[in-house]
Give the backbone structure.
Amino acid sequence: MKNDRRNKKERSGGRNQISAAVFVIMLFAALISVYPLVWVILQSFKTEGEFLSSIWSLPSSLHFDNYIKAFEEANLLTYLKNTVINTAATLAVDLVLITCLGYAFSKLKMKFKKFFYYVILINMLIPTPIILLPMYLQVVNLGIQNTLAAIVFPYYQGFAPLGLILIKNYMDNIPNEIIESAKMDGCGTYRILWSIMVPLVKPMLVTLAILGGMNAWNEYMWALVSISDTSRYTLSVGIAVIRDKIATIGYTPVFAALTVSAMVFVVIYLFAQKTFVRSITAGAVKG
Amino acid sequence: MGKHKKAGLLQELKESIPAYILILPTLVILVIFLFIPFANAFRISLYKYKGYGELTKYVGLKNYGSVLQDDQFYRAFGNTFQLIGCDLIFSITIGFILSYILFRGIRMKRFFNTALFIPYLISMVVIGCIWRIIYDPTIGPLNQLLELIGLGSLARPWLSQIDTALPAIIVTWIWRTIPFNMLICYANIMTLPKDHLEAAEIDGASQFQRLRYIIVPHMIPTFATLGVLTVTNDLRAFDLVWVMTQGGPGGASDVLTSYVYSNAFVSQKFGPATAASIIMMAVMIGITVILQLVKKAGGKNEE
């Protein structure tokens, strides 16, 4: 009996040591995860001289000059504005058309449904580089280069398969009786979609908005290929341009620009952590 | 009889009209921005093409031949699979271990949950810019840190040396993908029925036994999903590589997508570049089919 207790005590002592070690490892992991961003933020408030004399020091006071320089001289404001417009327009198209798709595939009679479903999903097997050049030629042919359409439709095209899978699964779980009874009450197909389905799938629309929003906001390759007008550059393309200007505008304005670009989703995440996590988890479906 | 069938089909098509109207805009967009370009890709791959004007110089399969004879193509191929291999091994394992620690409970759990997820919230382009500065030979924090702790001899120009450029990119890539794998593992580990674990604890199963015989088996489907996502995602790797090295120095860190991109949009060799991207797609589809077959076989064994 006594022996038993001592054993237990010894074991729990070992366990405490282990959990202390685990805690230290976790602290180290958290440091590695967060420090690069924290370091960039700290540098963004320093003067160029402070930064060059020591990269480890804290800023002596909060210099916002770097931000002003980044926004004005380095065109960060233009890039940011373009990205907001592109993302908002893409999201509008994403949400409206994907809701239509979901309703059609989940709740409506459709001849050749399977065929059309795979026509939309097949995109998941086509790597973007294949269509990069022909899509660019297409955009030039249509005369829409450097317009919103040349950004929004290709982004929608890329997001539609995942969006369709997610919203169809979600709508499949909504009982058909709701729709049947609305039909009895004389609601037409589109009325049911708008005033019954849309409110019911709101949580999924939020998920799609987060996933599609991150897609559109962060996209790089297509923006790099298709946008030739520098005044229409997106943040992704623009930030790389700003980074290459270190020699002329100095390091610290570049840190300010990086801070602004990096913090957008970090801030959204901090305010809506649960929604964000739910959305990203939902998005982890394989095609 | 035949007439009857026809009338039935017409009736069905008529009833499908509301659905067709709803999917029509998407189909139009896909035709213009996906299917026509996709068909054109096959045409372009058979021509010598500078990227503008009409396709005139038909060369047959020569572009495919020149890609398959290009050492750099195989190098990019190898690099892509190094990236995939490291990502599969390190990112998923570390992601799982972190999620397991969070699952078991730890002080300041909320803080760790939030902090460990931060890298995933920053875009690949911004991460590439930040890490390029981190790896900078003179003002970069990595080299300065090494000197600070007396390991100055290890300091080097990480991204401009042939043997360190790709590993440096892979480390950054893994740093960015761990949070995603952690999040998905955590969400799935939480679905483990609590009474299973409690029953095992009462039966005297040790911490390790519970991990080995209950948690890991429970997580196998999650690992499979993450594996597929990792492979398909990494085959498309471009942003980070392009921002950090553009595939350099001397092509040492080229991956498939950056190889295609620089052949097309830097060297203006659109025919071979498109041929390479079609070969890449064939490989991707091959891998997807193999993964599905493996999954099916695995599923049968479980039964």
